[in-house]
Structures are given as structure tokens and as C-alpha cells.
Design brief:
Oligomer: single chain
CATH superfamily: Aldolase class I
Distance between the termini: 55 Å
Number of domains: 1
Order of helices and strands: HEEHEHHEHEHHEHEHHEHEHHHEH
Binding site for FMN: 66-68, 96, 125, 186, 216, 285-286
Strand order of the largest sheet: 2-9-8-7-6-5-4-3
Helix content: 40-55%
Subunit structure: Homooctamer. Dimer of tetramers.
Number of strands: 10
Bound molecules: flavin mononucleotide
Radius of gyration: 19 Å
Number of helices: 15
CATH topology: TIM Barrel
Largest sheet: 8 strands, parallel
Shape: globular
Structural class: alpha/beta
EC number: 5.3.3.2
Main location: cytoplasm
Organism: Weissella coleopterorum
């Protein structure tokens, strides 16, 4: 008999997929248009997709974002995702391992990712509020190459059994200082603002995933889990809480950290747009999960290989041969997003 926490992991998976099917996310990056140029002076064959970072030295600018582990069923998904990551050469994050700190039966559902992909780039995952010692335990559990610490206050607020104490700065700082691998501080889909990014930088954060709204929505998912999605108990007024992925990337314009993005990414063009707005790498969760659950691992491999083949073409189309060229690509924002940027006094040089 699996624990209540393990059951929660199964529910997240099932509900995320059910919501994806019911309301397929519309990427907030649709609010950004890249300017077409007829003379880009590029060659698709010469495009280099590699991330220009010594610690996160990935071959591709997108990766499989944190989702599963903790139950038998989600362990199977982790194994499939890790096999996909191995075949396609993508980095991959496992889902939150906090369950495995208390429930040792959950450990194999994470270890399986390392077994399936012994030499791949694997990212461990833990919630904010855990100690540096616990963070190191989850890193060691899967021989991780990096650690994600997720911040999810809005999710916890909606979750009936969620945390209610959000004093996280001190423990995040300790984790950053002591971790044996690079630490990525990551939002789970409610986005970040300038102030949060600055606070994290002051703690020494070098990798920040602004994880914005417009993809998987944990306010909705937790409401479904609570069975409170009735007019009486629902948190429906929080369903559009937070900054979108596009807004969050604008918020991060003046950051000196290695900015990453997640939330609603569903095409290679979304990856490129996020990069133009300053993301060095882009995580994909719900879209890949849907592909895997609907069509199986072989299909997900084909989807990822298609993205990998299309990205050099898109780089060449916008006049870029490598990642660093992308930030020079001109773009325009739709009126809603440009209004947001203006009201927030955001430094968007090409805006
Ligand atoms: C089923 C599911 C489970 C998730 N579990 C975690 C988790 O344990 N830890 C975490 O940091 N993010 C978790 N996420 C959030 C994703 O990593 C990602 O930040 C979010 O879903 C937004 O990206 P998307 O729109 O591509 O899905 C989960 C997402 C899904 C779909």
C-alpha cells in the first residue's frame, strides 16, 4: 500500500494530463513576435545549439523538466523519460524527491532515472524549506549533476495539506552555499518578478528558472485534488495568479544570473523566443508528458528529435549562429505584454 504522499504524485500526473487535454495551454510567448529579416547571412549547417555555460554544458537549449517519481507508477514514467533523455541527449530533471527523504520505499522511483541513463545530465529536485543536508541527500540519491530547488508558494496555498510557513530565504542560501553541484532556483508556474530575482541573486543564486504561468497550472490541479472545485470552496480566483513566462522573462532582463524558463513551452519557436528574451535554457514538462502518455516513449523521442532538427533552422532564420546571437534579435510585444512592461518599468531595450 503506497503512502498518501505517493498517491499525491499519481494524482498530479493524472490531473496534469487531464487538464492538458481539456485546456491545451496557450504559450504566453505568442505575445512576442520576432522580426523577420530577409538577409540573415547564416547557414543552418553552421548553427551551434550548445549552451554556453561551463556547468550546464548541454548540447541543446531545452530539457525535460521536473515531473515525476515517488510512486510505483511515476517511477515507471521516470524510467521512460530517462530513456528518452538518453536517446536524445537531453538533460532531465526528476520530480520532487522530498517524499523519498521520509519514505524510503520511494527511493527506487528516482534511482531508476540514473540507472536508465548512467552518463546523462540529471537534475535532482527538492522543495524550498528543506535543509542543505536534505538537499545533498537528494543529489546523492541519483548522482545528480545539478539540483533544482522549487519555489511553489501559490501551489502550497491552494493545496489543502500544503505548507503555510514561507520563510525560505535562509535555507535556500545555505543550499546554494554548500551544494556539491550547481543549484537552480525554480518556480513551478507562477513566474517571478524583478524583486524575487534580485533576492535570489543576493543569496548567491547563479541559475534561476523564472517558471511562469501559461502552461501547467498548479492552482487548478491542486483545486481538483482538494475536490474543492465547487463554487463553495474553489480557489478559482487564483487560476490566473502570477506572471506568465513571457512577463517573467521581461522581469529578468537586467539579471546577471543564468536565466532559464519553463511554463507552456510547446514548440521549437517557443524555445527560440524564450532565448531571445534572455533564457539560456528552457524546460518542458506538460507538453512532453502529454506526448509520452498519449503516444509512448518512441513518439516522444521523435518529437524531441524534430525539435532538435528544427532549432538550427530557426536560429538561421533569425540570423543567429549560436545562443549569444539570439539576444540581438529584434522583437515586438503585443499590446497587453507591452502594457505590462511599461507599467512595470522594465528595461526592454528592443521594446
Ligand atoms: C505532473 C507534473 C508534476 C510536476 N512535479 C514537479 C515537481 O515535483 N517539482 C518541480 O519542481 N516541478 C514539478 N512540476 C512543474 C514542472 O517542472 C514545470 O515547472 C511546470 O509544469 C511548467 O511547465 P510546463 O508548462 O511545461 O508543464 C510538475 C509538472 C507536472 C506536469
Amino acid at each position: 500500500m503506497e503512502s498518501e504522499h505517493a498517491h499525491r504524485k499519481d494524482e498530479h500526473l493524472a490531473l496534469a494530463e487531464a487538464e492538458f487535454k481539456k485546456n491545451p495551454p496557450i504559450s504566453s510567448l505568442n505575445q512576442v513576435r520576432l522580426i523577420h529579416r530577409s538577409l540573415p547571412e547564416t547557414n543552418v549547417q553552421h548553427v551551434d545549439l550548445r549552451i554556453q555555460d561551463t556547468a550546464l554544458n548541454w548540447d541543446y537549449p531545452f530539457y525535460i523538466e521536473a515531473m515525476t517519481g515517488g510512486s510505483y507508477k511515476t517511477g515507471e514514467i521516470n524510467e521512460q523519460l530517462a530513456t528518452v533523455a538518453k536517446t536524445t541527449g537531453l538533460a532531465m530533471a526528476v520530480g520532487s524527491q522530498s517524499i523519498a527523504l521520509k519514505d524510503f520505499d520511494a527511493i527506487p522511483s528516482f534511482e531508476i532515472a540514473r540507472k536508465a541513463n548512467p552518463d546523462g545530465f540529471l537534475i535532482a529536485n527538492i522543495g524550498a524549506g528543506h535543509t542543505a543536508y536534505e538537499a545533498q541527500r537528494v543529489i546523492n540519491m541519483i548522482g545528480a549533476n545539478a539540483l533544482e530547488v522549487h519555489v511553489n508558494v501559490a501551489q502550497e496555498i491552494v493545496m489543502a495539506e500544503g505548507d503555510r510557513d514561507f520563510h525560505w530565504l535562509e535555507s535556500i542560501g545555505e543550499i546554494i552555499t554548500t551544494s556539491s553541484v550547481p543549484v537552480i532556483i525554480k518556480e513551478v508556474g507562477f513566474g517571478m518578478d524583478q524583486q524575487t530575482i534580485l533576492q535570489l541573486e543576493q543569496l548567491g543564486a547563479k541559475y534561476i528558472n523564472v517558471g511562469g504561468r501559461s502552461g501547467t497550472n498548479f492552482a487548478v490541479i491542486e483545486d481538483r485534488r482538494n475536490r474543492t472545485d465547487t463554487p463553495k470552496n474553489s480557489h478559482h480566483y487564483l487560476y490566473d495568479w502570477g506572471q506568465t513566462t513571457a512577463e517573467s522573462l521581461l522581469e529578468a532582463q537586467s539579471s546577471s544570473a543564468h536565466i532559464m524558463a519553463t511554463g507552456g513551452i510547446s514548440s521549437p519557436l517557443d524555445v527560440v523566443k524564450a532565448q531571445v528574451l534572455g533564457a539560456k535554457a528552457v524546460g518542458v514538462a506538460g507538453y512532453f508528458l502529454h506526448d509520452l502518455l498519449s503516444f509512448g516513449p518512441e513518439h516522444l523521442i521523435e518529437t524531441i528529435q524534430l525539435w532538435q532538427a528544427h532549432l538550427p533552422k530557426l536560429y538561421a532564420l533569425v540570423g543567429a549562429s549560436q545562443q549569444s546571437d539570439l539576444t540581438a534579435v529584434p522583437y515586438v510585444l503585443n499590446s497587453e505584454l507591452s502594457n505590462y512592461a511599461q507599467q512595470r518599468n522594465l528595461n526592454t531595450p528592443k521594446f
